[in-house]
Write a structure and sequence with these properties.
Layout (H helix, E strand, L loop, with lengths): L1 H6 L4 H41 L3 H6 L6 H9 L8 H19 L3 H33 L4 H53 L1
Helix pairs in contact: 2-6, 2-7, 4-5, 5-7, 6-7
Length: about 200
């Protein structure tokens, strides 16, 4: 594997960095979303129980134990006395949009790598072909033996770029789908709590 990596030329290092970034963001995002799921459940189950018992102060205090992306819209639920129903709904809508944007943080890295990795691989392809022509020029001969090293580098770089891109695109689409589901769940849970208030 190490020999294959070296055979791909210098372009393999940026591709390796891209791959590591994709996996770092992936594991961080999975950890974050799993913890957020626990907070969503806590906010809804405990918050619902407290609101049914009319324990508004304790329900507000619940915001200190959940993630800031959830606590901000959650606290907006308790501003109903100061605002009209329409103003209240609009303010909650704005807080939920902020939460939605916060959930997408760092996802752009995977998306960018997914779209740019094939071009990084293609650059490696071009460099490999240039080396092949330089080998022909230096030896004054043509044939497979002369160009084999350059073509091998070109093909390995191309394959590596495609692998990194495919991996990144699959993970990007997975997170987009999961974040849509999380956003819907947060919105629905907030509206259920709003009905109780």
């Amino acid at each position: 594997m190490f020999e294959l990596f070296n055979a791909g030329g210098f372009i393999m290092y940026p591709l390796l960095l891209c791959s590591l970034l994709v996996w770092f963001v992936t594991f961080e995002k999975i950890r974050f979303l799993n913890n957020l799921k626990k907070d969503i459940d806590l906010m809804f189950i405990k918050g619902q129980a407290l609101l049914k018992e009319n324990k508004i102060h304790e329900a507000k205090g619940l915001s200190h134990s959940i993630h800031p992306l959830l606590s901000t819209p959650y606290l907006t639920l308790f501003e109903s006395e100061e605002l009209t129903r329409e103003q209240w709904s609009m303010r909650l809508g704005r807080r939920l949009i902020e939460t939605q944007q916060g959930l997408k943080r760092s996802l752009w890295i995977i998306g960018t790598i997914g779209s740019s990795a094939p071009f990084i691989g293609l650059f490696g392809t071009v460099v490999g072909i240039i080396k092949s022509f330089q080998s022909i020029a230096a030896s004054g001969k043509s044939g497979f033996a002369v160009v084999a090293s350059g073509l091998s580098e070109a093909l390995i770089a191309t394959a590596a770029g495609i692998i990194v891109a495919v991996m990144a695109v699959i993970l990007y689409n997975y997170f987009q789908n999961r974040l849509t589901s999380v956003n819907t769940e947060i919105k629905n849970r907030m509206q259920d709590l709003m009905d109780l208030i």
